[in-house]
Amino acid sequence: MPDLTLSPVAVPSRADDGDGADFRELIALRNAHYRRVRGNDEYTMTPEQALPHWQDRSDRLMEGLLARVDGEVVASGTVTFPQEDGAVTGEMNIRVTPDRWGEGIGSQLVTVLERLVAERGRTSAQGWSEHPESDGDRLAAATGYGSLPRDHVTRFLVRHGFVLEQVYRNSRLLIGGDLCDIRDLTADARSAAGAYRTISWEAPTPEEHLDGFAWMKSRMSTDAPAGGVDVPEQAWDAERVRRLDAKRVEGGYRVFVTAAQHRASGQLAAFTELVVDADRPLSANQDDTLVLKAHRGHRLGMLLKGENLLRMREAIPEVAAIDTYNAEENRPMLSINEAMGFVPVMYAGEWQKRLS
Fold this sequence. Notes:
Distance between the termini: 28 Å
Mean pLDDT: 95
Order of helices and strands: EHHEEEHEEEHEHEHHEEEHEHE
Number of domains: 2
CATH architecture of the largest domain: 3-Layer(aba) Sandwich
Structural class: alpha+beta
Number of strands: 14
Number of helices: 9
Helix content: 25-40%
Oligomer: single chain
CATH topology of the largest domain: Aminopeptidase
Largest sheet: 12 strands, mixed
Strand order of the largest sheet: 1-2-3-4-5-14-8-13-12-11-10-9
């Protein structure tokens, strides 16, 4: 097992500052991971895009380490700490360069990161893994929905005591032409949602919708399927929405939001988001989508996703695909995606290890 030198990653004021070299290395390792797993650059980020999320510690505190052997960077480790009162989790991520796999570097980093989680009084270490589909033996999720191949990542996490709590399906929709099928599905859903009107905007969120949108964002932590994962109830207010909008816009992203407003009460009842890198607009990421529990059963999910896609495509016609992640037990949302034409391309795991 090699002797690692670990150094904390300083968060620079600017990504190109002289003291930002380690931060740039950290992001380079992240990007290399996504290129290797996905086979393209669509999930890469520039240091300038990543930096706002590291600088703002109001809602999520992020700590990073670089691991070196004889001065050469061979791995990174990060931990993200939600800042809600009573939060018990630390979200860990480890990237080891492929030429150093099997040398015990990841195992050393797991020990260090778990210690960082425990030192902050957190009792749940969590992780996320992504897996191209493959044949062979599989590991089922604790939810009973979905499974992952027993590849080297899965075996590593199991060996270190992590439980596969959930499996997520990464689906992709190729978009082109006049999108007649999407228009038809959207129109059909609209006919079932007469008690609601739709409202659309591009970030930043309009002042008149900040409070209602903040409430819906907070419900993502309570109403979305989570299996046995410890998820702190997130506290959102207008200021937190402003902070998120500012980080996204500063990072060069365009965010398209469509929400449903209940006509009788004026309350926002559902929303969906699409995020596009303005400098590389070949694909979009489907971010949060939620219909509040009291407003389900009116086909709002299909309506909003369809309208938002059509609006985004009109604004940025270069976008050729949309990627989304959904828990395998979230059959209502998977059914919407399948009807729209999304197909599975990869699978991901939500892992957890309780430290005490």
